[in-house]
Design a protein that fits this description.
The protein is 47% helix and 15% strand. By secondary structure, the chain is α/β, with parallel strands linked by helices. The chain has two domains: 9-139 and 288-305, Rossmann fold (3-Layer(aba) Sandwich), CATH 3.40.50; 143-281, Rossmann fold, CATH 3.40.50.1400. Strands 2-1-3-4 form a four-stranded parallel β-sheet, sandwiched between helices. Strands 6-5-7-8 form a four-stranded parallel β-sheet, sandwiched between helices. Strand 3, helix 5 and strand 4 (132-135) form a beta-alpha-beta unit. The radius of gyration is 20 Å and the shape is globular.
């Protein structure tokens, strides 16, 4: 890797996850914007993490950062939006290393604007000691990303044989109030899902696809917020009307974590079986070479804005 003082760096920003389950309560407090979670919620989350052997997200993202650094020949750092290492701490560290310009790439392709705002606030808190930032805009609608997802879906469909199959394209749900306030998340995801579906059909012929928003909040009752839908149960009901096999494709995510390995491979698998459907899942992009190549192209925009390349 080349580059040193006064060369730009790239900062990958992830949602984050814990490696030590004793940190779950503090992590979920961050997710809940400072509101401590009920003990029952922490216990349920611990069960989920233990059931999958712990989240691999931090390890995967570290490998992504390593491979991207090799490809770009630049310093690539990793921070978490909701856990350690924080964006502010990593930006301070990059500035101390002599990187006065930082290209920010969110590892959340449909929420890049949220991550960019967080990074700007963190840099502002550092004042004159902080680096200059340029952030990649939302990149979930890229053609190369659609092709990467579609190729993986098509490979799974190929193993199903002649059985009637449906593909459920999933993303993390959000409270409807967020979208009603103007966030483009739902619109952008549905457009990306349509593009992915078109690429799958180009590879495999006519395939039924269904969109679902998964992993709604665990709060129940009359005061619980309304979440984006359809949820997984509704989507699987829809799929079972015409299909015997279902492929879950978490195309709103980039890497394996608890919402893929538990919410899909455990919960959704059981839900599919209860509806007479056999289950398969699209493999996540994780740290695959084709995904790292996409990230390099995403990073090229803010790097150029900072005068590099």
């Amino acid at each position: 890797m080349t580059g040193g003082a006064r060369s730009p760096a790239v900062l990958l920003v992830s949602h984050g996850s814990v490696d030590d389950l004793d940190d779950l309560s503090a992590f979920v407090t961050n997710v809940r914007r400072g509101r401590p979670p009920p003990d029952a919620l922490v216990a349920e989350l611990r069960h989920r993490y233990e059931a999958i052997g712990g989240s691999p997200l931090n390890t995967i993202n570290a490998e992504v950062a390593r491979k991207l650094a090799e490809r770009l020949g630049l310093r690539v750092a990793l921070a978490n939006r909701l856990w350690r290492p924080t964006v502010k701490d990593v930006l301070a560290g990059l500035a101390a290393e002599g990187h006065d310009r930082v290209a920010v790439v969110a590892l959340a392709q449909h929420s890049a604007h949220v991550y960019a705002d967080d990074a700007r606030r963190a840099a502002a808190e550092l004042g004159a000691a902080g680096p200059t930032l340029a952030s990649a805009p939302g990149w979930g609608g890229r053609d190369d990303l659609a092709r990467a997802f579609a190729g993986r879906i098509a490979s799974v469909l190929a193993t199903a044989g002649p059985v009637e199959a449906a593909v459920v394209l999933t993303a993390h749900s959000l409270p409807k109030s967020v979208v009603d306030a103007g966030d483009p998340y739902e619109r952008d995801f549905r457009a990306a899902a349509a593009a992915i579906a078109a690429e799958v059909r180009a590879l495999r012929g006519e395939v039924r696809t269904v969109v679902a928003f998964q992993s709604q909040g665990m709060a129940q009752g009359p005061n619980a917020p309304a979440w984006l839908g359809p949820d997984l149960a509704t989507a699987l009901d829809d799929a079972s009307a015409t299909a015997k096999h279902v492929v879950l494709a978490p195309v709103g995510f980039l890497a394996d974590h608890v919402e893929v390995l538990y919410d899909l491979d455990v919960e959704a698998r059981a839900m599919a079986a209860a509806r007479g459907l056999t289950y398969a899942r699209m493999p996540s992009l994780n740290a695959a070479d084709d995904f790292v190549a996409i990230l390099a192209r995403v990073a090229a925009g803010p790097l150029a804005e900072l005068g590099h390349g």
